[in-house]
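Form 12-C: Joint structure prediction
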Amino acid sequence: MMARALPLSGRLSGESGLRLLMLLLALALLVIGLLLPLATMLIKSVQDRSGDFVGLANFARYVQTPALVGSIINSVSIALISTLTVVSLAFLCAYGITRTCMPGKRVFRMLSILPLLAPSLLPAISLVYLFGNQGWFKDVLLGESIYGPIGIVMGMTFWIFPHALMIMMTALSNSDARLYEAADALGTPKWRSFLTITLPGARYGIISCAFVAFTLAITDFGVPKIIGGQFSVLATDVYRQVVGQQNFQMGAVVSVILLLPALLSFAVDRWIQRRQVAQLSARAVPWQPTPSPLRDWVFALLCYGVAAAILAVIGTAIYASLVQFWPYNLSLTLDHYAFKALAGGGWDAWLNSLTLAFWVTLIGTLVIFFNAWLTEKSQGYRPLRQGLHFMAMMPMAVPGMVLGLSYIFYFNQADNPLNWIYGTFAILVLNTLVHFYTVCHLTSVTALKQLDPEFEAVGASLKVPFWKTFCRITLPVSLPSVLDISAYLFMNAMTTVSAVVFLYNSDTRLASIAVMHLDEAGHFASAAAMAVLIFFTCLGVKLLHAVVSHLLLTRAQRWRQAT
Amino acid sequence: MSLVTAPPRHHASRQAPPATAGASPRAVSGPAARAPARDAAPQALTTRSASSDSIHLKISGLTKRYGQFTALSEIDLAIREGEFVCFLGPSGCGKTTLLRAIAGLAPQSEGTIHQRGQDISRLPPQARDFGIVFQSYALFPNLTVFDNVAYGLRNRRDARDAMRRRVTELLTLVDLAGSEGKYPAALSGGQQQRVALARALATEPGLLLLDEPLSALDARVRLHLRSQIKALQARLGVTTIMVTHDQEEALAMADRIVVMNHGVIEQIGTPAEIYRQPASAFVAEFIGSMNFLQCCPENASTLRLGQQRLECAAHDLEGLDQARLAIRPEAVSLCAVGEGLSAQVEHVEFLGAFLRITLTLEGCGQTLSADVALKDSESLGVRVGARVGVRLPSEAIRLYPLVEAQA
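Section 2 - Result
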């Protein structure tokens, strides 16, 4: 026995050493990809152009510049209005889906995720076509211009709606039928059940939804860039300061300010998540809606209206990309898909985006899932694992513009040993991976928590190395979630603008950035064409994901069948 | 945390009902409470310990702390080769923590563990020699029964045929031959747990750890699997530690029981010892049903219960003003009014083979229960409100200090 155990212990201390190494690598990834760049940016915000410490002088100068301070008010008011609009809409639609018997739920849900498949530039472009100076529905605005707050709020609402709807649906589907039955038995009118059961039950979801919407709205770059006109917001200020005026210090200052609301909503969201857990009882009986024709049709019409608006926006972009010269020559053409205006050709940018999305998806899925496994399922090194989890939660609070600018500061330093990745694909991959890390991490952790906590212990007791148990059991069993992560990463890598806008060079220009450039140069139809191209690429991947998931689930049906 | 600090009385009252079934054969045997059925266990133990007397596992000074909270405190324990030991205690008593420390899954803060003389205190689980079965089965859902059982074998690169033979042999052992191709989800709970058992035994571990293996199963399946595991263990002779909160399970299966509470061992002994000579009021209350009466120990062999003086076995509590007298319901015997202590019948509960009668003692006003066979109760005319005589045989009485139970 001893003879057998001794050589084993030698090999297996190697196993826990390997685990430690993996953990350190995972930490290094986030330290290099997140912490150090952010720290560098914070330092830059208190330095002058020559790199000397100037305290809060930059901030003082910021406050004294009315054009810049105005952006704070602009950003906050735009974000508040967008949040209010999108949360109300999402609540109503989610209520329709979860609490009524309206027809066509499934179709509506599929249509409602379409905005996720396009960069936020797309709705802005469409809105210009619909309500711009030569738009069909210009008169609806009663003389107000679409370029400015109105356009931004509309674009934001379109783009944030799917995010908000998903959170709201989760919040509203957590219902306990027993509470409603008790209320009915006590003769409670429906409106009172709604106020005393439905709303309180969903309150954390509503708050969480509001903060997510607010963060997305205040940090989004794409919509205000295209449709903002002279109306400046924080995100466009960062871009203008850095790319337009090469004023990196002021860019850093605006970034720090942009970081604040995001940090706040991040903190609130964490707090809510903690409260939410205690609220749900495992014994709750899900509530099933009963038909009520009037209510069902009211909600159905509302949802169809929303779906129609989504289709109209996307349809406009598609149509605009196909007509010769809006609005004078409406004959159809594919000319705009040649992207002649773009030096180096637009299809290269599209290929670059595909390449980026491929690598981000491949590396990101494996790395993030494995890192989540390290934090969730491995033994020992508790402080390291907690540190990793904490850092994995941070990217959610960092707006893309801020992350992108931080990367310039950090990786562009001549004395940084990683300086070589500046201007390559590698920096785009690293940036995008870190930018969208948190949601993937949370998805992984949720999936891993559903596994029996003793799988690893059983594997260890049978002297099977941990990586084998990971590959044979953990990964296959979590495959649906892993595929979800892949699809999420792919779509975001295809559509992101904000972070990578600072990091590409002429060889690594991405499709989403090409949309922006074409729009800046006045090639609106080509910009629409590129946005549509991204949209269909994502749609294709999404469909592929659905098919693959379906096939895998059918294949795995044999063992997934619940007893 | 709150569970741990709760007074033991609470757990005991929760554990009481199952005891009645286990206690029934003894109850029928009458006041003597020396049921022959129990004596089988020590005999089995002696036959085994004669064959192998070496120590398989030795735990010394083992302490486990989680921050400020001490989950295990200075545990000392030796387990013999081939022995079946149960860790028994209320939830939060540290029994699972101790098992996980032995497995290396929750390494101890202090203390040592030796397995067959080798110090394994700091070894990771992979380097220790044990098989483990969890309450949740922890079967790999995406692998067939065959692959689950073969999981540890495959890694050792055994020849395919040998491996196949071994899996078939193991599945036959747990009565599941022919289920090789099924997935865990297609099996019942009891079947799944047997697959888990086969998987744990596949690598022929020197030590088998069972972490509440029966708790997730239906009562009927539990009884069946209980005897199956016990028979299997006896046949293979593998040293086994089972964690359970079910005292009936522990009494039925174990060679020795380790009763734990608040992270310390209260008593180690054979089921018969634990049942008949509980070392503390906690053990007395936790195992089986027990009456507790307040009394006053007068000297080494007599005590006073209210105004009555009673004989009792020798004890070392003289000089104390008050003590707790413990006696099992089946040891209490009823007799005609006028003999023994007088009592009034408060409540009669019909439990099948016997009646549990709740009595109030006249004079001191304390209540106690007595388990009485149906025909005895008829001959004595037991009914609610009737007066009867009560005898508390001196050899069945145990005394405990008053404060200890609250510790």
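Section 3 - Comments
Chain A touches chain B through 36 residues (CB under 8 Å). Strands of chain A lie at 323-325, 329-332.
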